[in-house]
UniProtKB/TrEMBL annotation:
Domain Cytosol aminopeptidase: from-to ranges: 370-377
InterPro entries documented for this protein: Leucine_aapep/pepB, Macro_dom-like, Peptidase_M17_C, Peptidase_M17_leu_NH2_pept, Peptidase_M17_N
Residues holding Mn(2+) 2: 289, 294, 313, 374
UniProt main location, coarse: cytoplasm
UniProtKB keywords: Aminopeptidase, Cytoplasm, Hydrolase, Manganese, Metal-binding, Protease, Signal
Name of the protein in its database record: Probable cytosol aminopeptidase
Role of this protein: Presumably involved in the processing and regular turnover of intracellular proteins. Catalyzes the removal of unsubstituted N-terminal amino acids from various peptides.
Cofactors (names): Mn(2+)
Stated family: Belongs to the peptidase M17 family.
Enzyme class per UniProt: hydrolase
Compartment list: Cytoplasm
C-alpha cells in the first residue's frame, strides 16, 4: 500500500500524469555524453588527431623526437597523404609517442574550408573514433597558422562530432553504450576560441531538443506533452513560455487550429516562447507545425509506410523550439518569438468531416476539402496569432507540409515561398552556411488556386506545394512573411553525415542563423 502511494505521488510530481506510463517525455535527459575541453597545451590521450593543411611538408610537432618524426613522415610518403580536405591517414602505435594511434586529418587550404565541410569532417571523424577504443582524444590544430581559421575550423569540427553523437535511446531497456569520449581541442588562443565553441554547443543543444521532440512517438509527443517538454527546456534559459490550452484556443477564435484535434481527447494547444535578447518592440516570429501525429483524419493515410513516419509531423514545431533554445543559449541579441500550434490529426465520432467548414482566428472561413491537409489549418491560426497578438515584424513558418514538395525538390532543399527579397536572400545565405539549403518556388500566377464554392477558401489545390503556401499567405496579411516547406527532411533511415539515424532536427540551424542574419541587415 505504502509503496503504491509513494509511487503514484512520484509519478504525479514527475509530470507523468500527462504522459503514457511507458516513458516520461517530461524528463529531459542529457542528450550526449561526449565531453569537450578547449586548451592551448598538449594533452595526453589515447588518440592524437593532427589537422594537416595541404602541402604542409615534413610534419614536426613539439615533443616528437627524430624516431617519431621519421615514422610518421615515412607513413605520409608511403600513403601519399597530401592533406587534401577530408583525407585521413591512421598510424597505429606510432614509434616513440605515448598515443595508441595518430590520425592525420587533411584540411586542404584552411582559408577555403567551409563550415559545412568541416562539420561533415567532424562527423566522419566521430564515426571513426567511435569504432576505436579511444576514450580520450587530443585534436591538434596548430598547423593551421591563421588564428581565425584555426578557431573557426576547430569549432566546426567539434560541432560535427557533437551532432553525430546524439542518440535517441530512451525506449531501450538496455541501450548501447553511448559515445563518451573526452576531446581536448588544442587551439591557437583558448580564450578567443572558447566563445565560438560555446556558441556552437548552444546550437547543438537546440538541434538535440528538436530531434528529441521529433523522435517522440505520436502517443507520447501529443500537444500538451510537447508544450510541457518545451517549457521545461526553455524556461531555465530565460525564455518566457506561455501555453494556451484548448479552451483558450477556442476562446480566441482559432477554430481552424482547434478542428484538427477535435476528434481526439488530446486537444489543441498553442505554445508561445519569447526570447528577448534586445529591446526591440517588434519580435521576429517563427511559427512551426506541431502536428504530433498525422493519420490523415477521415482522409486516412492508407499506406503503411506513409503513415508510419507521421510522428515526425511535429518537426517544424520542434525546429522552432530548438531555434529558440539555441538563440537563448547563445544569448543572441535578437527579439524572437516561437509560436507552435499543436495538434494531433485523428479520427473519432467527433472528428472533422471532409467538406466541413471551420472559422479561423481572423474570422475567415475555410472549407476542409481534405482532412489530411491539416498542417495549413493549424499554421493559419499560428501565423495569424503571431501577426495579431504578437505584433511580429516578420514571420517565418516552417512545416512538413506537402508530399508535392518532396516530389519537386526531394530532400536536398526545402522549398521557400516569399515576396520579400531580403528574406529570400538571408534565408538562402543561412541555408548555405549550415547546409540546410532552401530553394524558392513562386507565389505569383496561381489566382483562384484555393477558391472554395462555399467558404472563403479551401485547404486543397494544385500544384500542391504552392496551394499550401498561397493558403497560408492570406493569414500573414501585410507582415513580411516566408513559408518553408521541409517535408522529407525531418528523418533519415540511417546515419548520414552529421545525423545519426532517426530525426534530424532539420530547421534549427537554418532558423537560428537566419534570425541573426535578418536582424543584422
Ligand atoms: N504531413 C503531410 C505531408 C508530408 C508528406 C510530410 C510526406 C512528410 C512526408 C501533410 O499533412 C499531408 O498529408 N499533406 C498532403 C496534403 C494533401 C492532402 C492536400 C499531401 O501532401 O499529400
Ligand atoms: Mn496530413
Ligand atoms: Zn501533416
Amino acid at each position: 500500500m505504502k509503496t503504491l502511494l509513494a509511487l503514484s505521488i512520484g509519478a504525479i510530481l514527475a509530470g507523468s500524469t500527462l504522459l503514457s506510463p511507458a516513458v516520461s517525455a517530461a524528463t529531459p535527459t542529457p542528450y550526449i555524453h561526449t565531453q569537450f575541453n578547449v586548451t592551448e597545451s598538449m594533452q595526453q590521450a589515447d588518440l592524437l588527431v593532427v589537422l594537416v593543411p595541404e602541402d604542409s611538408g615534413e610534419l614536426r610537432l613539439s615533443g616528437w623526437d627524430r624516431a617519431s618524426r621519421n615514422h610518421i613522415n615515412r607513413a605520409i610518403s608511403v600513403a601519399a597523404f597530401t592533406g587534401k580536405a577530408g583525407s585521413q591517414l591512421e598510424i597505429v602505435a606510432p614509434v616513440g609517442l605515448n598515443y595508441g594511434r595518430v590520425l592525420l586529418l587533411g584540411v586542404g587550404n584552411p582559408a577555403e574550408l567551409t563550415r559545412a565541410k568541416a562539420e561533415e569532417m567532424g562527423a566522419s571523424l566521430s564515426g571513426w573514433v567511435n569504432g576505436t577504443k579511444a576514450e580520450t582524444v587530443h585534436v591538434h590544430s596548430q598547423l593551421i597558422a591563421n588564428a581565425t581559421d584555426n578557431h573557426r575550423i576547430s569549432a566546426a569540427l567539434a560541432h560535427g562530432v557533437e551532432l553525430r553523437n546524439y542518440r535517441f535511446d530512451r525506449y531501450k531497456s538496455q541501450p548501447d553504450a553511448r559515445p563518451a569520449q573526452r576531446y581536448s581541442w588544442q587551439v591557437a588562443l583558448a580564450t578567443d576560441a572558447r566563445v565560438q565553441f560555446e556558441q556552437k554547443q548552444a546550437l547543438a543543444q537546440g538541434v538535440f531538443t528538436a530531434r528529441e521532440l521529433t523522435n517522440l512517438p505520436g502517443s507520447d509527443g501529443y500537444p500538451e506533452a510537447f508544450a510541457r517538454y518545451a517549457q521545461q527546456v526553455l524556461e531555465p534559459l530565460g525564455v518566457e513560455v506561455t501555453i494556451l490550452g484548448p479552451e483558450q484556443v477556442k476562446a480566441l477564435g482559432m477554430g481552424s487550429l482547434y478542428s484538427v484535434s477535435q476528434g481526439s481527447h488530446m486537444k489543441a494547444h498553442l505554445l508561445v516562447a519569447r526570447w528577448r535578447g534586445n529591446q526591440d518592440e517588434q519580435p521576429i516570429a517563427l511559427v512551426g507545425k506541431g502536428n504530433s501525429f498525422d493519420t490523415g483524419g477521415y482522409n486516412l493515410k492508407t499506406q503503411a509506410a506513409s503513415i508510419l513516419r507521421m510522428h515526425t509531423d511535429k518537426a517544424g514545431g520542434a525546429a522552432v523550439v530548438g531555434a529558440i533554445k539555441a538563440l537563448a543559449g547563445q544569448k543572441a541579441p535578437v527579439h524572437v518569438v516561437g509560436v507552435v500550434p499543436l495538434s494531433i490529426n485523428m479520427i473519432s465520432g467527433d472528428a472533422t468531416l471532409p467538406g466541413d467548414v471551420v472559422t479561423a482566428g481572423d474570422g475567415s472561413t475555410i472549407e476542409v476539402g481534405n482532412t489530411d491537409a491539416e498542417g495549413r489549418l493549424i499554421l493559419a491560426d499560428g501565423i495569424w496569432y503571431a501577426r495579431e497578438h504578437l505584433n511580429a515584424r516578420a514571420i517565418a513558418d516552417i512545416a512538413t507540409l506537402t508530399g508535392a514538395k518532396v516530389g519537386a525538390l526531394g530532400n536536398a532543399y526545402s522549398a521557400i515561398f516569399t515576396q520579400h527579397s531580403d528574406i529570400e536572400q538571408t534565408m538562402r545565405e543561412a541555408g548555405d552556411l549550415v547546409q540546410e539549403r532552401v530553394w524558392p518556388l513562386p507565389l505569383e500566377g496561381y489566382d483562384g488556386i484555393v477558391r472554395s464554392r462555399i467558404a472563403d477558401r479551401i485547404n486543397t489545390g494544385s500544384p500542391g506545394a504552392q496551394a499550401g503556401a498561397i493558403f497560408l499567405q492570406h493569414f500573414a496579411g501585410d507582415t513580411p512573411w516566408v513559408h518553408i516547406d521541409m517535408a522529407g527532411e525531418a528523418f533519415v533511415n540511417s546515419a548520414t553525415g552529421i545525423h545519426p539515424e532517426g530525426s534530424t532536427g532539420h530547421g534549427v540551424r537554418l532558423l537560428t542563423e537566419w534570425v541573426k542574419l535578418y536582424q543584422a541587415q
